[in-house]
Design goal:
- The chain is an alpha/beta fold.
- It folds into 2 domains: 1-33; 40-300, Rossmann fold (3-Layer(aba) Sandwich).
- The chain has 9 helices and 9 strands.
- It has helices at residues 2-32, 53-64, 76-88, 103-116, 140-168, 189-210, 250-262, 273-281, 287-296, and strands at residues 44-48, 68-73, 92-97, 122-125, 171-176, 219-226, 237-238, 267-270, 299-300.
Length: 303
Amino acid sequence: MKIYQGIVITLEVIVLIIKMYATWFYSIYKFFVPPEPKSVKGEIILITGAGHGMGREMALSFAKLGGTVICVDINPTGNQETVDMIKENKGKAHSYLCDVTSRTSINEMAEKIRKEVGDVTMLINNAGVMPCKPLLQTGEKEIRIAFEVNCLAHLWTLQAFLPAMMERNHGHIVAMSSMAGVIGLRNLVPYCGTKFAVRGMMEAIHEELREDPKDYSGIKLTCICPYIVDTGLCKNPKIKFPSLLKILTPQEAVENIVDAVRRDYQEITIPSSLYYINQMFRIFPRSVPLHIKDFLDSGLEAQ
């Protein structure tokens, strides 16, 4: 019996190694031969924080590609401006006002959207706030709002819109994390906490869908980790090497985001080089990447 078990385990290990190598080589192939961008025509795309910045730019971009865009924001003026801009370009868009920190409000909005537009097939959790000051100078209200907007809202929208995607085995969930969700940065302790949490939630929901006995392979997930984007949230950016780590415009960032979503990438950084730099230096002792971080000397000063 022990010999038989040993043979079985050995065979399982061999199969595991073959799978790992095959996946590794396939990933290298996909790096050099990326998948063709998929069409989003006819998709119902909900974007939170659509009233300005990257949310607005994403709404405009996806509308141009033929998607029906659901613009969601707490600011009625900015949200309607986005909708009007889309319609001026012959696109399809709808405006819904919602406080994404309220689970009740999200559920009520979700029901209205189902009746008035249809089932959301692409959910983009973009709304965010960024308190930028030392932790000991950050008030309780600021911290709670950061977690409610940047983190908890993702859970409420997932609970509201994921079931319909699962019923059809079709959908795409996009979450805005940040490079502050990959590395810790001074003056951004609560913000980093929320963005690390977003990446963890996206990994976990991926596994929840992947390991389910039913087939949910038609539901894609993309986690976005930009560095610094000029949306108005970053009041005092500090960049030592602007040519290496420049501040991006919302349009530049969104070009990368839309491309990543259409190619079904699971996670990207903006710029993309930061993803590979981070992965490479993670294998070194913790003090080694800190030398690189100190050399780059970039981040955000306190407001």
